[in-house]
Amino acid sequence: MVARFRGLFDPDEKVSSEGLHKGLRAIIWDGMCTQAMGALCGGAFLVAFALDLGASNFHIGFLAAIPFLAQLLQLPAVYLVEKVRARRFICVTFSGVSRLFGSSSPPSRSSSLPTTVWVCTC
Fold it and tell me: Is 108 a domain residue?
């Protein structure tokens, strides 16, 4: 599967000055949007939303622990990148998969733990 898209995701041998500046502007915008999303979808807003859904102390603690538990996925990711040697392909593939999970419809309002987990994954 990787060999099929190898040419599409290969890094450029030489980047022009214009391409470099365009990439730097894109990274700055990406960073700003990521920080805005993190501020608006996490922390106090996420806790307030979870409490509105009726989450208990356990659920709030679980939401707070998810980012640290997700860091455990970095270990197999390093192995995958070293094995496949196609970072761009891996990034695009797993970003697409995460969007599929985030676009799924939320569970019913009666079950607070799955709802809060769904909200956190979006």
Answer: yes
Confirm whether 6 is domain-assigned.
no
Measured CA to CA, the distance from residue 43 to residue 67 in angstroms comes to: 12
43-96 tens-digit pLDDT = 888 888 889 989 999 999 988 888 888 889 889 988 998 998 888 888 888 888
Who contacts 71 (Cβ-Cβ below 8 Å, separation ≥6)?
A: none
pLDDT digits (tens, 9 = 90+) for 13-43: 788 999 899 989 999 999 998 888 888 877 8
The Cα angle at residue 113 between residues 46 and 95, in degrees rounded to 5: 65
CA–CA distances in Å: residue 41 to residues 22, 44, 63, 120, 122: 28, 9, 12, 8, 9
Measure the CA–CA gap between 86 and 10, rounded to whole angstroms: 7
CA distance 42 to 27: 22
Q: Does residue 10 lie in a domain region?
A: no
